[in-house]
Amino acid sequence: MAQKDDRVLLLNAPRLPLEDAKLEELTGDLHDFAHANGLVMRLSTDKLSSEVCQTTPLTLLPSPFPKNVFDEAVHLQNLYASLYHYIAYDFDFLINIHKNVVKTDDFTRNMVDILKKVREQGLKQPITLAIQRSDYMCHKDQHSAEYGLKQIEINNIASSMGAHAQRLTEWHIRILRALEVPEDVIKRAIPENKPIPMIAEALFKAWSHFNNPSAWVLVVVENVNQNQIDQRHVEYELEKLGVPMVNIIRRTLTQCYEQLSLNDASDLMIDGRPVAIVYFRAGYSPDHYPSNKEWEARERMELSTAIKTPWIGLQVANTKKAQQVLSEDGVLERFIGKPREARDVRASFAGMWALENKDEVTSKVIQGARKHPDAFVLKPQTEGGAALHTGEEMVQMLRELAEEERGAYILMEKLRPMIIENYLVLAKKPITFAKAVSELGVYGYAFGAKDAPELKTAGHLLRTKPESTAMGGVAAGHAVVDTPFLYEFI
Ligand code: ADP
Ligand code: MG
To answer: Which reaction equation describes what this protein catalyses (predicted)?
Structure first.
């Protein structure tokens, strides 16, 4: 599965490629398994209905991933959850670091404006919940040729794909058995993967804390969502924990504007009952706010007693800008008191630079990116895998961006992920055996009041895409869902 030039020895891993007959049999089994277990998505041609679904884009086999790099990502998750929990409450920091972003980025400006209102009026709900997924690549250092963990980004909102990843791990165990990989190897190579019970547990804690059996769990959704089944698995798990099915409602931000109100006690009311939790599975993209109404709905939520996941502080902390500023000297260390922990988190940062400063370092980095477009990527603040600028397009943007637009972008070192080989399975398309690269995400939560968050890490996702594809994102159609096959260098 891994390339020979990476000097990787994958003892007992299946030998690839598989024989045609075996491949056909296993692929057929995979589609059965996917449909029998809800590892499915809506059709891209009919995103409004689940009547006919298709197998989620995925890999037939797990992809090799170094165990030490995986363990590091798991180790870091509680540190990241705690870090963002604390940053979210630092209003001055958040407002200050986005002062140039908001000049041209309307979406971030609207978020920051709501944050300012929350600061003025005070938090009506002191308890907050972050359900997170931190994403990394297993990056090959150009000088040492060693693999190490480097963060791509963190997701404090709508962290998705956990239900698929959890189910795909079950399939990957199954296929390794079918290929006669010994049970002890499977046990070592395939780590337990249960993000959905953890996410449901976090939501259940928040709902129970609200302490009103008739209170709602409000899931904020997009008008149209091809990946609705992934969200539904979270709701079903939450029902198993004891939230009555009838208390869980799904609404778009536009519907929220029409149906939600604040009462005198700042409770967020719908149909005469308060909302205990607002669980955002939408709200991270400008398209989710087609008019001022949706922003008004968001503001009402933020000024209410409902527990939001995420609350506005956490979402403003989630920008690429905040990620870049944290990497500047001494900034991360203001939020993580223990030097060893700060060192571990910092070691996972890739190189990141602001564009708006007029110092020598900035102009050198920009010159460097224009000269070596293959070594950098340019990122705006948007979420959702739609806007990564690379190569000549990046060079052109660096040349043409107006002075006041520069603050809304960050420049990032382009990571060189480990190259593996795997079968990519896309419904109704021929299966392909491709050289591919993976991005690892680790799920976790931080729940509680400002000074005492409860932290937990559980479950992971690998997203794998052909080596030649620059962007990521399963929903965006670039990558497929995968899980890691852990190995150790020997
Ligand atoms: P989004 O919020 O849109 O998901 P990301 O930062 O995750 O933004 O970037 C989208 C995708 O672009 C990632 O999934 C990854 O495949 C690719 N990408 C992002 N940053 C880098 C980087 N520094 N080096 C290489 N690829 C990157
Ligand atoms: Mg991403």
So the answer is: gamma-L-glutamyl-L-cysteine + glycine + ATP = glutathione + ADP + phosphate + H(+)
pTM of the complete model: 0.96
Write down the CATH number for the domain with range 352-413.
3.30.1490.50
Per DSSP, the chain holds a count of helices (H) and strands (E) of 16, 20
37 included as an active-site residue: no
Please say if 444 is a catalytic residue: no
pLDDT at residue 385 is higher than 70: no
Ligand 1 site, residue 436, Cβ cutoff 6 A: no
Report domain extents, the chain. 9-350+415-487, 352-413
Does 472 sit in the ligand 1 pocket, CB within 6 Å? yes
Instruction: Tell me: pLDDT of 467 over 90.
Output: yes
Asked whether residue 293 carries a pLDDT value surpassing 60, the answer given is yes
Among protein residues, the one with the nearest Cα to ligand 1's atom 22 is 414
Opening angle at CA 316, ends 313 and 321, nearest 5: 145
CB-based contact 80:195 (threshold 8 Å): no
Span 230-257, pLDDT tens digits: 999 999 999 999 999 999 999 999 999 9
Q: Which ligand is in closest contact with the Cα of 462?
A: 1
214 is catalytic: no
CA of 437 to the centre of ligand 2 (A): 14
What distance in Å separates the CA atoms of residue 387 and residue 378, rounded to the nearest whole number?
Answer: 9
Residue 478 CA: which ligand 1 atom is closest? 16
Report the alpha-carbon angle 349-355-360, nearest 5: 95
